Amino acid sequence: METRRFLFDSYAAPGDSFRAEIKRVGSQRPRYRHDHDFHELMVLLDGTLRHDVGGRSDILAPGAAVFLRPLDAHAVYAPKGHHAHILNIMARSDLIAALGARHGDTLAGRFFWSNGVYPDGITLRAAVRDRVVQAGSLLRDGPATALRLEAFFTNLLTDLTTEGAIFDLNLPDWLARACRTAQTPDVFREGAAGLARVAGRSHEHLCRAMRRHLDTTPSAWINSVRMEHAARLIREGTLPVADVAEAVGIGNVGHFYRLFRDQYGTTPRAYRERARRAPV
Fold this sequence. Notes:
The protein is an alpha+beta fold. The protein is built from 12 helices and 10 strands. It has a 5-stranded antiparallel sheet. It has a 3-stranded antiparallel sheet with strand order 6-5-8, with no helix packed on it. It has a two-stranded parallel sheet with strand order 1-3. A hairpin with a 2-residue loop joins strand 5 and strand 6. The longest helix has 19 residues, at 218-236. It is globular and about 60 Å long. The protein starts with a strand and ends with a helix.
């Protein structure tokens, strides 16, 4: 398939640092792939997409995010008779390079700075996805300055390197659905048993699949989701820590403290105090 090059200056106004938009993607397969002279973040908002990149074809589900580098030749299209919407952010490559240089200890080899054959593709957790959509809409509607672009990616990458993401776009459908469903309190309060229930698989089968695709265990994964929810309750409310622990399905407060400290590097009470002192 022929590859064409897209140029940043063909899309952006002179002096702009980025272009952000929400695009509708139809089912007509492109006649050619394209690469570009800029970096591009693509987040699938709804529908299903096929993404052909680097000789590989991925099926993308809502919440999928792909960090495309300039030479990643790719094409994207929906299944026949369907369409999808994506948040698309095109960024000048010198700004992305500068961001990576300043935070190389955290970002080297990941996201836009991956050295792999294929671009990094991840499935955003629900809370992160919601923040990305909101921030992307604000980015689209304001001035295209370098400062606003850096703020967007700093917040996104902070989310991804602290609260995490699912780093495998090729999850089996049943596992991807289970991971999305398990981010609701009715499921994660049950722990790994709740994840196995919505997956419709035995605990042993679930363990093997999560080890293979996510390099983790059901218990570790669901506890991470629990701690994300707990952190949100602690930041945004006044519930006592014991009540927060109960709200996420952990009856032993000491165990809750250990899980929270492992994920956030501090105690729940210290985390709340830090959140209260943060500027608004």
